[in-house]
Amino acid sequence: MVSRMFRIETEVDKERRDLLRRRLRETNTAASPVLRALRGTPGERESPLHVWALVDDGADGADGAAGRLAGGLVGHTWATWLHVTYLWVDEAARGAGLGGHLLARAEHLARTERACTASRLETWDFQAPRFYVKQGYEILCALPDYPPGITEYTLVKRWA
User: Fold this and answer.
1) Across the beta sheet with 138-143, what order do the strands follow?
2) Which of 54, 55, 86, 89 is most buried when burial is the number of CB atoms within 10 A of its CB?
């Protein structure tokens, strides 16, 4: 039984969120020699990693930039891991190997320029779990009904 009284609040509070993040980070760093060793190194921070496939036909895309977006990969690297957040290929370009090329390029950059040894991602059952398995990823987790009626998969690929 809790001997103190607490007031519970539910509003969004960015200052408290940042304070909570700092305190959790301090607690985790104190508890983990691995996280403690990362402090102050380049591997401590997430570094964005983006790879784009543009149709170079001289036409401007929806955002006004030269080249229409045919596909792309958005992710980041952290602590020797590549985390693929988004991978998308335009319907007209699917089936030609572009998704595999984008993924391979991101993996190559992560390995050679950022010393990553593994990659991870999440995908839903109607998206691309079979595609990622063909690219050498292993399904580590299947979470049914996330969201309801859909299964989310977590996949990992290790290079070292």
Assistant:
1) 47-60, 66-78, 81-89, 118-124, 152-158, 138-143
2) 89
How far apart CA 103 and CA 84 sit, in angstroms, is: 9
The residues that bridge with 156 in the sheet, in sequence order, are 120, 138
pLDDT tens digits along 77-119: 999 999 999 999 999 999 999 999 999 999 999 999 999 999 9
Residue 145 sits at φ, ψ, to 5 deg, of 60, 40
Q: What is the pTM of this model?
A: 0.84
Identity of residue 158: R
Smallest CA-to-CA distance from 54 within 83, 90, 18 is with: 90
Neighbours of 6 (CB within 10 A): 6
Q: How far apart are CA 151 and CA 62, in angstroms?
A: 32
Q: Are 153 and 125 in contact (CB under 8 A)?
A: yes
DSSP reduced 3-state for 34: helix
